[in-house]
Amino acid sequence: MDEQIKQIAERLRGLRDAMELTTEELANECGIDPKEYEQAESGEYDISVSMMQQIARRYGIALDALMFGEEPKMNTYFLTRAGKGVSVERTKAYKYQSLAAGFKNRKADPFIVTVEPNDNPMHYNTHEGQEFNLVVEGRLLLSIGGKELTLNVGDSIYFNSQLPHGMKALDGKTVRFLAIIM
């Protein structure tokens, strides 16, 4: 699996060890399936942003600390130049580029998400809060709570992210969208 995934897994293990929790205790406290958490911590499986966000929120740490290994430092503003945001490629299908990695105590987590076309089944996530997506390139199939929607360039959607949701690139082309997770 990708080196970045292994580094995230190491940070998850380090956090859990520092709190002296078992994998089952951490998973239960964060509302995560213990088997899924153990797979994530192994570094051999994809780690969803929603899982990392649940852990970060539960323990009051920055999502960036888990995703990128760096604590945010800015509290007035944080500028991200085009194409320069800190990024993590969770799988060959999804890449997340953080647009506010250096800003402390954010109320939302904005990302540019790149979804590559593939024939794999759609992967579903759920997480606390709400999410906003704006398609900037390609066509996106978005499933929310069992309803499938096609979003084109310029289309946006705001939804309850506690509902199972997943996405897939259409037309065999890469999709890029702005995602703001709140």
UniProtKB/TrEMBL annotation:
Residues 12-66 form the HTH cro/C1-type domain. Keywords: DNA-binding. GO terms for cellular component: cytosol. It comes from the Bacteria. SMART domains: HTH_XRE. Signal peptide: none annotated. GO terms for molecular function: DNA binding; DNA-binding transcription factor activity. Pfam families: Cupin_2 (PF07883), HTH_19 (PF12844). PROSITE patterns: HTH_CROC1 (PS50943). This is Cupin domain-containing protein. It comes from Phocaeicola barnesiae. The lineage of its organism: Bacteria, Pseudomonadati, Bacteroidota, Bacteroidia, Bacteroidales.
